Amino acid sequence: MASHRRDYDAIAARILPAGSREQRMQHIADTLWDALSDRGVSWVGFYLDQPGEPDDRRLVLGPHRDKPACSPLAMHGVCGQTVRFRTTRIVEDVSQVKSEYIACDPRDRSEIAIPLVDAEGTCWGCLDLDSWDISAFDERDEQGLIGVLQAAGLLPT
């Protein structure tokens, strides 16, 4: 429930919608990490869909902060379900979603994953944030993160 301390409008104002898609993703990962690492966020990163790959290796790690993460990911996990169904997933307690959760850091307790859908309707990946706290994310985080992604031109407005 720490999201009330997260100022996504200020974060979005710092986002530059310039450069390649990869550069904009790295800018978002860096900016979110700098703003949120002391506000209950333990990891920030992107997973990119590789539609030609088998489901057990379909998502690969993209720009991220601040520690290594699992890659590739299977489509049964939270990020895979986010991409497959093109809907945000907010997991209050990862221990409650057992088979859907792929543990990269055993200390993580909650997660939010936002689908990245282009103007043509193709979901090309997701933004993923983790926390060591239970119930660290809610709908305010979802809306704030969508605003950050839109500011970078990674989601249509």
Task: Walk me through the structure.
- The chain has one domain (2-151): Beta-Lactamase.
- By secondary structure, it is of the alpha+beta class.
- A hairpin with a 5-residue loop joins strand 4 (110-117) and strand 5 (123-131).
- Helices cover 27% and strands 22% of the residues.
- It has four helices and five strands.
- The chain has a five-stranded antiparallel β-sheet, with helices on both faces.
- The chain has helices at residues 8-13, 21-36, 78-85, 139-151; strands at 43-49, 59-65, 89-91, 110-117, 123-131.
Major beta sheet summary: 5 strands, antiparallel
Arrangement of strands in the largest sheet = 2-1-5-4-3
Q: Assign the CATH class.
A: Alpha Beta
Task: Tell me the CATH topology.
Answer: Beta-Lactamase
The SS-based structural class is alpha+beta
Mean pLDDT rating: 91
Distance between the termini: 27 Å
**Cα shape:** globular
How many separate structural domains? 1
